[in-house]
Design goal:
Blueprint (H helix, E strand, L loop, with lengths): L1 H8 L2 H10 L6 H18 L1 H21 L6 H9 L12 H5 L20 H25 L8 E2 L5 E2 L3 H22 L7 H21 L6 H15 L3 H14 L1 H4 L2 H14 L9 H7 L7 H13 L5 H19 L3 H14 L9 H7 L3 H24 L2
Antiparallel strand pairs: 1-2
């Protein structure tokens, strides 16, 4: 999902979206709001798209502000672009919600997405969380903004020369037009695109038929991955372009992919050590979760998932580790599995904003230092933690 999401984030449609928003980005506060809103919205559709699109918007809007004689705060924009990782698990690509809708999920029964991602509670929570992130980005940027600062440029003779802002603005829009034209050339439909179009048509027919026959129950992990393949094929239909952009996405995600063996080794160590077993370090917490009335089950599941995510940042890997605990809690207390899964999702997603594992592409694209990025993301993490804690308490 990461590689395909990166490809979709670099498609012509996304380029046009950024270009449409650019005229409205006139100061740092607006730039922060747009970057945060785009990142959160895209992450709810797919976390890979949200991660890369947020970083690309942060970089492009920063350059746009500089060209328009406004000094941007790159770390704030990068943090806004990274904020989507704090909302993703309540969206369409949530690992736990999609895994729970399959037979071999680690639970005793299939939990439909109607009980998790499409439940009224999750829809309201995700909306409130995104709104709180956007409001926070606006407040932070307003406090740290330095608008109307004239940026000196270096003349050909080496002296500082002030460039007319209207001229710079024209240059900015020329850059936008050039990037769009290149994107159009990259996605031009031709005879060479027929294999990609044929495969995309087959995928579309399969995905549509599954929805027609099974309704919303068809929405599982396999369906989401198939949809990403469909979007990537439509964005880059020719084999040559698809292979090139696929290779670029692999290179960009290499920093993350190389760490997966390390974290899955950590997952194996934690599982083998029995931290969540009856004699494990976390057993007192697990025992409280499984008391007869289940009073604190949602809250403790949320806190346990948030803590484990700092050790095992993969949502799918963490689900493998924590799903047996959730199953035992459901059996012992009889509480609704959908809400317990959502509590797990909320804990897993919010500490991503403190986890450098997923920030590697953001740091590479924006050029921001890790220290500067996390000096801003902790504010989003604290805000989101409180919002989600209220949501979990109200379950």
């Amino acid at each position: 999902m990461l590689v395909l999401g990166m490809m979709c984030a670099r498609s012509q449609a996304v380029e046009r979206l950024q270009s449409w928003v650019l005229p409205f980005v006139t100061n740092m506060a607006r730039a922060s709001v747009f970057v945060c809103g785009i990142s959160c919205t895209a992450a709810l559709l797919n976390w890979g798209v949200g991660l890369i699109l947020g970083a690309l918007c942060a970089k492009r809007f920063s350059e746009h502000l500089r060209l328009n004689s406004t000094s941007p705060h790159r770390a704030i924009l990068a943090a806004c672009g990274y904020s989507g990782l704090g909302v993703w698990h309540g969206g369409l690509s949530g690992s736990a919600t999609l895994a729970a809708s399959l037979k071999d999920s680690g639970l005793s029964r299939i939990v439909s997405v109607n009980e998790t991602m499409f439940s009224p509670h999750n829809l309201l929570t995700s909306t409130c969380l995104c709104a709180s992130f956007v409001a926070l980005s606006f407040m932070i940027s307003r406090l740290r903004s330095h608008s109307n600062v004239e940026i000196p440029t270096l003349a050909l003779d080496g002296s500082n020369a002030n460039v007319n802002s209207s001229k710079m603005e024209g240059q900015a829009f020329n850059l936008v037009k050039v990037s769009i034209s290149h994107a159009g050339d990259a996605n031009r439909w031709s005879f060479e695109s027929m294999p990609g179009v044929a495969f995309a048509s087959f995928l579309f027919a399969m995905l549509s038929s599954s929805l027609w026959l099974d309704g919303i129950r068809a929405l599982n992990l396999n369906w989401v991955i198939g949809s990403l393949w469909l979007c990537a094929l439509l964005a880059f239909p020719t084999p040559e372009r698809f292979a090139r952009y696929f290779a670029d996405a692999l290179r960009e995600s290499a920093g993350i992919l190389q760490q997966f063996p390390i974290y899955f080794a950590t997952l194996g160590i934690v599982g083998a050590a029995g931290w969540l077993s009856q004699d494990g370090l976390a057993w007192p917490l697990v025992n409280l979760m499984q008391n007869r009335d289940g009073t604190l089950a949602h809250e403790l599941t949320y806190l346990l998932a948030a803590g484990l995510n700092l050790v095992v940042p993969s949502g799918g890997g963490q689900w493998v580790l924590q799903a047996p605990v959730l199953e035992a809690t459901i059996s012992a207390t009889g509480i609704a599995p959908g809400k317990l899964i959502l509590a797990f999702c909320y804990g897993d997603q919010i500490t991503n904003l403190l986890q450098p594992f997923w920030a590697i592409p953001v740091l590479a694209i924006t050029g921001v230092k890790a220290r500067d990025l996390f000096l801003e993301t902790w504010k989003f993490a604290l805000c989101g933690f409180l919002v989600l804690l209220v949501s979990v308490v109200l379950m």
